[in-house]
UniProtKB/TrEMBL annotation:
GO terms for molecular function: methenyltetrahydrofolate cyclohydrolase activity; methylenetetrahydrofolate dehydrogenase (NADP+) activity. Keywords: Hydrolase, Multifunctional enzyme, NADP, One-carbon metabolism, Oxidoreductase. One of its GO terms (biological process) is tetrahydrofolate interconversion. This is Unannotated protein. Residues 136-275 form the Tetrahydrofolate dehydrogenase/cyclohydrolase NAD(P)-binding domain. Pathway: One-carbon metabolism; tetrahydrofolate interconversion. GO terms for cellular component: cytosol. It holds the Pfam family THF_DHG_CYH_C. Residues 6-117 form the Tetrahydrofolate dehydrogenase/cyclohydrolase catalytic domain. Homodimer.
Length: 277
């Protein structure tokens, strides 16, 4: 068996073209703000990529770069400035932040109506209540790709490995909503019999940052496998899933080229949603 490979780059390009057309027809002037603390190469590259995406679809960029020594109050002040900036439709605080910073306290300072990442407590609460809200970009990207590739989610046994606040936890809520109706298991470091759960799952979504953790012999033939993890190694960036899993899966989203490009495109989609509120 050879898996159908999810082409996130192609899907992202289609979505960005749709967004560019919508912005042009609306005659709105949108601005995406980013707050970057420090000079971590991965974070710098990711933020630069977001602003390239903005330029491609006609969204203005508002860049706020702070030194790694920036205090929590300095970061909050930068957030307040963007909250008040009429040219800023929405913005994100690039994670991770320095260890001395209380991430949840910082994210709570974002105006929910400008929360392009969907990580403010109010927006996450609305997700739990299945109310209309800004959905975190990666979970939104994963659901979009699963639907595009006609993966059956109704009653499907979905195993999410990793309970982070940006992917695992919000994704588990999203996929268990009545509009999706998957049966979701959220695995983490204390999960027992993980190997049994993996074999029993119809869909596996790996988001733990453990290089090539998921091996071909661990999954049953025909499983849908989505790789969300990213680990920096001497050989470059790799995902949580051994690429050879594609030989056993029915549908496989690799890293790179799968969820990542759509996650960035969903940030633009969220910005358009904010402009329409």
């Amino acid at each position: 068996m050879s898996a159908m490979i999810i082409d996130g780059r192609k899907s992202a390009l289609i979505l960005k073209n749709q967004i560019a057309t919508e912005i042009k027809q609306s005659n709105k002037v949108l601005g995406l703000g980013t707050i970057l603390v420090g000079d971590d190469p991965g974070s710098v590259a990711y933020v630069e990529g977001k602003h390239r995406d903005c330029a491609e679809v006609g969204i203005n960029s508002i860049k706020v770069n702070l030194p790694s020594s920036a205090s929590e109050n300095e970061i909050i002040n930068a957030i307040n400035d963007l909250n008040k900036n009429p040219k800023c439709t929405g913005f994100i605080v690039q994670l991770p932040l320095p260890k001395s910073v209380d991430v949840q306290k910082v994210l709570a300072q974002i105006d929910p109506k400008k929360d392009a990442d969907g990580l403010h407590p109010i927006n996450l609460g609305n997700l739990v209540l299945a109310k209309n809200s800004i959905i975190p970009c990666t979970p939104k990207a994963i659901l979009s790709l699963l639907r595009e590739y006609k993966v059956n989610l109704l009653g499907a046994r979905v195993l999410i490995i990793g309970r982070g606040t940006t992917v695992g936890r919000p994704l588990s809520i999203l996929l268990s909503q009545k509009s999706v109706n998957a049966t979701v298991t959220l695995a983490h470091t204390a999960t027992k019999n993980l190997s049994d759960l993996i074999l029993d799952s119809d869909i596996i979504i790996a988001a733990i940052g453990n290089a090539h953790f998921l091996k071909p012999e661990m999954v049953k033939p025909g499983t849908v496998v989505i790789d969300v993890g990213i680990t920096r190694t001497i050989n470059g960036l790799v995902g949580d899933v051994d690429p050879k899993v594609a030989d056993k899966a029915s549908v496989f989203s690799p890293m790179p080229g799968g969820v990542g490009p759509m996650t960035r495109a969903m940030l633009l989609s969220n910005l358009v949603e904010l402009s329409n509120q």
